[in-house]
Amino acid sequence: MNAYESKGNDPDLRLPESLNEFQEAIIELMGDSSDIVYREVQFAGIGGLVVYVEGLADPSGILDSLMEAKNEDRTREGENGVSPGQALRELKINTLSEGRIMEIDSLGAASVCLLAGGTVVYLDGLAKALAAGTQNLKQRAVQEATSQSVVRGPREGFTESISDNTALIRRRIQNPSLRMRYFRMGEETRTSVVVMYMNGKADPNILRELYDKLEKADLPSILESNYIEEMIQDQRYSPFPTVYNSERPDVISSALLEGRIAILVDGSPFVLVVPALFMHYFQSSEDYYQRGDFASLVRLLRYFCFAIALLTPSFYIAITTYHQEMIPPNLLLSLIGQREGIPFPAFIEALIMEITFEILREAGIRLPKSIGQSVSIVGTLVIGQAAVEAGLISAAMVIVVSITAISNFALPAFNVGISARLLRFPFMVLSALFGLYGIIVLLIMLGLHLCKLESMGVPYMTSFAPFRLSDQKDALVRLMRPFARKYFGSLKKQPDPARPSEGSS
Amino acid sequence: MKERLRGLMLAGLLLHASLLTGCWNRRELNDLAVVVALGVDLEETGYLVTAQVVNPNEVRSQRSSSGSASVVTYTEKGVSIPDALQRMLGKVPRQLYLSHLRVMVFGESLARKGLIDVLDYAAREHDLRNDFYMLVAKGSKARDVLSVVTPFEKIPAESLFSSIMVSNKKWAATGRIKLQHFITVLDRGGSNPVLSGVRVEGDKKKGRNNDFLREIRPETMLKHEGLAVFRKDKLVGWLGEDDSKTVNYMINNVSGTTGFVPCPGRGKGSIGVSIMQSKTSIKAVKGEDGKPAFKVRHVLEANVDDVQCELDLSDPGSITLIEKELEDLARGNTASNIREVQRKFASDIYGFGEALHRQMPKEWAKYKSEWDSYFKTAKIEVNVEVALRKVGSILQPLKKDMEGQ
């Protein structure tokens, strides 16, 4: 990782040779920002300037070393006449104790170094300067992952600092084939992005495609990993996510070990993984920390939950407005009894309830925790009781909407839950128009779409369609470890029939 | 660009397809009047149709009832059943919904005149779900049967439906006959259908009011009674309890019932048995005179459930004795019942003709045209095999123990 490689299109001006000019050049480039500190020093009798950004860098090590060297100079007085070049060399090799030090000779490199939290040491009379890595960002400590918590399993979650995050993964995979490649992306924010993969496991074709996409992604700014997710996904108009994300180092590590590729973005605790398959969204890291048989049942339950979250309201609408003959007589009578006096058609009723629920959910997320609870209480009372008692909404519909919502929350990945939430409404409309027929047609279309979808050239439904028997150890169910030492087959980019193969391998 | 345009056009067309059709046959639950029972009676100019419609407010479990009846019975005349049902809409505030019909009741006079036109409607109407039971109102109009409130079940049709199920399973003297079965038996030639009968016991008028259910022993009740024998689609007579059982045995429609045999040897009292399994097979053979004759083999499995005699049940001999008694009794009953049906109704409700058709198709061809009249004189031999399986929780009869002391 080379933090001082300039990628921006800064003026590739060489550094001036005098101290004052240097300071002026920096001021000209970065403005007279109040957080940039210019500290004058002296080394081996030559005047120098230490420049850093307050709060980003911790230059105390450098300053200490310089002070110490100055004291030594005094004792060794008389050894005058050292040329600036020699002094810089001396400074770099013997005096400064920082691990990462390199010589720079352009203004652009100097500004990059400063903004990344480095410290620039300039000696008068040289068109060169030293850049030292002195990053000292105030950042969150490693805390429990809140978005994907588990009962059993590691508690650590990623933080906003990319170097912490890479370290969290390195610690789990102590293997020399774990490789990282650094990118600096975003003209304005110049955010660090790291692509991580297991050499030999990750498909080079996928890797190449990812690099391509990252290089082509013309983003002015990156504040969160979703900025990148949206640029690299294969299909823009799909309700299904094709880039996986996780806040948990163990999840990312296991994805890397499966030969998938992780993308870390500085400033975001959410790490992206490609390729992402449909089934990945139904796997929770806890599946691997609990007994295999239990985990299998729970995983099957999740697929079931997805179906419930997607279809229950529309199924209810279809059955009660078109196919009453399919309801057992006693249930039908009970449903009719409940619907007596309800002023809305079933579809409108369902729509009102679903939208109310979405509003409540949105309100609950944004509000501070203490108020959030009272909102949910009001919500339950309003929907659950008052509406039913006032005879506006039937009790059965409340049950339907509740089970839908709860099933939605049972999905381990938030983004596939969003897919279900989105698709629920077209299903409801079609069921109100055509009954079960409409639901089936949309399901078929959805099936086709899923089979056509790809993530980094890998079919989205891999291991179901195309069916891979060996993957079934860890697809719908998870076999116990003795039966499945290696869980998952490698993911290879699907050869494009329209394009001739690109030579290599 | 072109592709996008095409996609947009396709989406537009799809949208039209969905919006222009309207909502086709959408109906909200609270627009439905669920018909649970349909009664058909004969009128001079057509039919008198009675529909029992559920009042959903009253069957709701939670809300306390307002005291009105849980079903409403509408009656209307019409040239045909659909005609009558259409006219009925002048009285019913909602769309009549026939899919959840539980029972269809025919008045006896209609049944005697022939059901075929009604059956045509019932088989043709796609709303009817074909899982309802058919009944004949014995000695009354179907309207009267459908105007009686029942205890336990709030919906009288539901009460009829479930009592047919239960009694057929445990008692075997009623028939659970659905439309499809009736038509099959009617159409195949070598057999005639039966239908279960239902009768209003007590005062018909009193039965209409919910109030009489407050009594611990309601005076008016609906009772399943015997089987109606049909020749083709016309009712020709009624069978009593024993004869009805025989019919059910013969058409393998018995899953369990009870019976009793007198104590073997001396003494009075009887031994009660419950039939656990029953399987009857009919074999067509060539008789001595060259005409077809039939052998009935009836295999029964039974348990002893009541012993009133001093019999040593630990002795396998006495078990054999009971089996023997039971065999003789069942054979006698079956044979005499069949003979009576032959003589009185000349209607092959047992399916002998069907057996002949299957086993000796060439013979069948000769008798096909006048099967019912041949059936009247056909020779039928009955064989019964009984196996007693269990004697219950105690071995020896208490009477024997008591007198042994």
Automatic annotation (TrEMBL), chain A:
Key words of the record: Membrane, Transmembrane, Transmembrane helix
InterPro entries xrefs: Spore_Ger, UPF0353/GerABKA_families
Keyword Ribosomal protein: no
GO cellular component: membrane
Any Pfam family hit: GerA
The keyword Magnesium appears for this protein: no
Superkingdom per UniProt: Bacteria
Entry's transmembrane regions: 261-282, 303-322, 381-407, 427-451
GO biological process: spore germination
Sequence similarity: Belongs to the GerABKA family.
Protein name (Swiss-Prot/TrEMBL): Spore germination protein
Natural source organism: Paenibacillus agaridevorans
From TrEMBL, chain B:
Keyword Nucleotide-binding (UniProt): no
Domain Spore germination GerAC-like C-terminal: 225-392
Record localization: Membrane
Pfam families noted in UniProt: Spore_GerAC, Spore_GerAC_N
Boundaries of every Spore germination protein N-terminal domain copy: 25-199
Superkingdom of the organism of origin: Bacteria
Record PROSITE patterns: PROKAR_LIPOPROTEIN (PS51257)
GO BP, one annotated term: spore germination
Alphabetic keyword roster: Germination, Lipoprotein, Membrane, Palmitate, Signal
Coiled coil regions, renumbered to chain: none
Gene Ontology terms: cellular component: membrane
PANTHER family, alphabetized: SPORE GERMINATION PROTEIN B3 (PTHR35789)
Similarity field: Belongs to the GerABKC lipoprotein family.
Name of the featured protein: Uncharacterized protein
